[in-house]
Description:
The chain is α/β, with parallel strands linked by helices. Helix content is 51%, strand content 11%. The chain has helices spanning 14-31, 45-62, 85-95, 113-117, 121-128, 143-154, 167-173, 176-182, 184-200; strands at residues 6-11, 36-42, 73-77, 104-107. Strands 2-1-3-4 form a 4-stranded parallel beta sheet, sandwiched between helices. The radius of gyration is 17 Å and the shape is globular.
Amino acid sequence: MSERPRIDLYCEDSGHEQFARALVGRLASEIGIRPTLQTVSGRGGHGRALTEFRAWQRAVSTGKGLRFEIPDLLVLMIDANCSNWAQARRELEDAIDGRVFPRYAIGCPDPHVERWCLADAGAIRKVLEVSAPDDPDKCERHVYKQLFRQTIRSAGQLILTSEMEYAADLVAAMDLFRAGKNQPSLRHFAEEIRSALLSLR
């Protein structure tokens, strides 16, 4: 392993990538390592993400058409949507070939990543200077995306590309213990990343 461990992010879309990059960066800094972060995929959406991950992994394992170096850590992040969280996470874990990626961390937001952005009321107050909304605890398709967007707009803030442009600031401001207590799927992801990073130190 090099002095700066390499971490590859394979994410459902750019919003997931922004959240994962911020969380990995924060935890790495707290642990005292300076990894090189590379985004392999941050597009495609939920429907294509896992299928394309499997295809990419096959290409990596055979070396066909790719000059690829196995990362020190793979971070795979895809929403649970409205599936059972444990089952959705297990599907992601089953998709990973441990011979290709011996170290990995899996993020499986339950049901969507925007819910993680709203997980810590203190971070919402600090970053957006408004009260955090109540969690509706629903699995409707866009409920957390719309709630996050409404929270940003109620703060009088602009959304230039998507609501997820605020993810990095919210992750930096989060009390991860409190956020993880509110959203167990986030706690699991943070714990997996922290454990993997400690093994790289």
